[in-house]
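[job 0417] fold request received: DNA-binding transcriptional regulator, GntR family
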Amino acid sequence: MTSTQRYLEMADILEAELAHVPVGAQVPSEHVLADRFHVSRPAARAALQELERRLLVRRVQGVGTFRRGRVEYVISAHVPPSFSETVRQAGAEPGTRLVSCGARRAVEQERDRLGLATGAAVWAIERVFSVNGEVAAYATSVLPRRPLLNLDRELGDGVSLHKVLGRRYGLTVVRSRYRISLDVPPPGIADHLTGGSRGPAWLAESVNRAAGGPYVEYSRTYLRPDVLDVTFEIEEETH
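[job 0417] inference complete; emitting structure tokens
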């Protein structure tokens, strides 16, 4: 048996065992696995790296390796376009950290998405989202400034944008158009999302409107696939 076959066989055995291990529990170290399977430390390390590629464990440098459990994250026209609400519906605890919020002129892409005139002012909001304490997403939201006066005073860490839009401005926000693709976050976003590592992430783009009203938000959200099990629901046309 080759070394590659051996570490893959180890990974298959460990994957079956992990099905019975609670999320967050620490899994055996390289040293313990090397002794158990009578292999070298590099072979044991390769088996753990394979489990990490399969999104079954997460490795914390200097601490250990832990059982990973991804949270279901549904993107659909029937699900509110709120990260916090979507995560809560999946039975997990969301968190929000406000990176920045400021007013500026909308660029062409934003004007096209929101139906704004040249020179229109918008709020640009950057946030980091977490799930059960682990960083899970980075979102950029752009909203028309005119109907949302003093929005910057309403936001902060732990504050849901969509709850503010409902409570303060009387808006119920729904998805109008959305798309998802696999992309590599730019360096500035990767620093927040993964500590600088630039692996692929889901990029969800959404244009949201007030129920029965105009467009109120254009968002671009990078979602970590090792934290979130993303489901993209395509609506069936009815006749």
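[job 0417] notes: The chain has a mean pLDDT of 91. Helices lie at 3-18, 30-37, 41-53, 83-89, 108-114, 151-154, 161-169, 187-194.
[job 0417] exit 0
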